[in-house]
Hints:
This protein is α+β, with helices and mostly antiparallel strands. The protein has one domain (about 25-120): Immunoglobulin-like. It is built from one helix and nine strands. Strands 1, 2, 3, 4, 5, 6, 7, 8 and 9 form a nine-stranded antiparallel β-sheet that branches. The longest helix is centred in the N-terminal third of the chain and has 21 residues, at about 1-20. The chain is globular and about 60 Å long.
Amino acid sequence: MKRFASLLMVLALGATTTFTWAHGSLQPQHGGVVQTASDLQFELVNSDAGVTLYVMDHGKPKSTEGASGKLTILSKGKKSEVPLTASGGNTFKAVVAKLPPGTKAVASLVLSPKQSVTVRFLIK
């Protein structure tokens, strides 16, 4: 019985570790908020110059060339939408004022004709 329990524990730890590594790091690389959706990592960076959204695929930059999207912002009971424009490499940009803490942002992206993704963020 002890042998079975030990084997079960090793399998459980192995499965957990593999899952964590399979999707890359969830640590912010640019000082933003990180979320995952559709096997991709997204980092929303909020600054005075606007919002930058980085897209990573298993730890590697995913090109945003030809992609489009919009950012829906929910703040202080008000809703607004701004376009997300592919800005080279693996980024999107949106021109908005710096988002205050507690703001909810939803990025709706069309990365290719066959891949649409929606990602939710909470600004800290």
